[in-house]
Amino acid sequence: xxxxxxxxxxxxxxxxxxxxxxxxxxxxxxxxxxxxxxxxxxxxxxxxxxxxxxxxxxxxxxxxxxxxxxxxxxxxxxxxxxxxxxxxxxxxxxxxxxxxxxxxxxxxxxxxxxxxxxxxxxxxxxxxxxxxxxxxxxxxxxxxxxxxxxxxxxxxxxxxxxxxxxxxxxxxxxxxxxxxxxxxxxxxxxxxxxxxxxxxxxxxxxxxxxxxxxxxxxxxxxxxxxxxxxxxxxxxxxxxxxxxxxxxxxxxxxxxxxxxxxxxxxxxxxxxxxxxxxxxxxxxxxxxxxxxxxxxxxxxxxxxxxxxxxxxxxxxxxxxxxxxxxxxxxxxxxxxxxxxxxxxxxxxxxxxxxxxxxxxxxxxxxxxxxxxxxxxxxxxxxxxxxxxxxxxxxxxxxxxxxxxxxxxxxxxxxxxxxxxxxxxxxxxxxxxxxxx
Length: 436
Ligand SMILES: NC(=O)c1ccc[n+]([C@@H]2O[C@H](COP(=O)([O-])OP(=O)(O)OC[C@H]3O[C@@H](n4cnc5c(N)ncnc54)[C@H](O)[C@@H]3O)[C@@H](O)[C@H]2O)c1
What we know:
This protein is 39% helix and 15% strand. By secondary structure, the protein is α/β, with parallel strands linked by helices. It has 2 domains: 12-243 and 358-421, 3-Layer(aba) Sandwich (Rossmann fold); 246-354, Dihydrodipicolinate Reductase, domain 2 (2-Layer Sandwich), CATH 3.30.360. The protein is globular and about 65 Å long. The two termini are 23 Å apart. The protein binds nicotinamide-adenine-dinucleotide. Residues 17-23, 80-83, 94, 117-119, 124, 127, 129, 166-169, 198, 216-217, 242-243, 245-246, 276-278, 357-358, 360-361 line the site of nicotinamide-adenine-dinucleotide.
């Protein structure tokens, strides 16, 4: 059975808590594409194709021509931040895009001014912004966000909205009783429970308003039973966590290759140096812990040491992040991989990825917003595992069932979901005749 997909006509509002490097790079990029200055490279919704039917049929349309997606000409942006800078100023400050490019988009970017943030320093110690909402309880703050959302929708004449968390990584918090049910979470919001950080208040506000929510950082945010239940109850699709860019992207490309060839891995040491605001926030051990947990999980799932003990049982996996201001947003992700082959002979792989963090992340935000909007129009709700493709630490759909990290399996799942939505045959590459 295929889902009926509602029309993608009309305006889509993308709401971004956190108008920093990633968010401003996204916004400037979308305007640049719409003006014909740039191409949306790195975006699957804009540039990706999808094979349909047998190989001999030669049907490979662009995804955006295959399934109704919001047109990027019909997107409007809004957001919140604890710094009052407009998007032009914030983009200049982030230092990702050249000033000459930003100047070509200045009027549009200057027009986007942040709404006051829901922010609490206890969860991000290194930031000192003052453009912050006041409220007696966390529920008051959630209500203020809900009002912001409604005002934005009316003011900008939006037909639909989505929210993607692009705010800083908060300190590590484990799931506790307040996160268990909708009732306990709402009680916690009224009682200012310490286990409810700002990102969770945004997620709650979005889901209450019926707005799809994606989390680009590794914070718990919507990854708690209470918000998963609320999302299902309100027919809202959600997904997270932590955009898969840079080093983890490389890891989930290389590790499946090693595993496929039954090559062993003795150790994988990963270190990053970066100098943007994200790097500064992650310089605090409590915030780094959240990121570390997110980054460490991927190899375990891909290599499955329990079922492949001779190859991966003793793997030593270490991840470091170092704040190094001279590099700015141009992160260096360096990996040393100690592998072993036939008769146990040792070899090494070294990867030095000189990447640009926000350049890799911006198209993911666009895709997530556009695919979540599709999911919503197709009546899909709760955790969207088919969007695991975009995350370092994909949210589980079924508690205890680990999501897949292998990027090629994730891609197959994403594209098969699109085929399914349109009633096309799924492609597994497992057919027995030459046409498959
Ligand atoms: N760039 C990447 O490749 C990448 C990959 C994975 C995850 N991420 C995550 O994406 C997020 C954004 O990254 P970035 O490089 O843009 O960071 P950034 O520091 O440049 O921007 C984050 C912005 O969020 C704001 N902020 C923090 N708490 C807020 C709150 N409660 N409400 C509203 N605004 C808030 C900050 O003031 C800042 O402007 C970070 O959590 C980062 O860890 C980035």
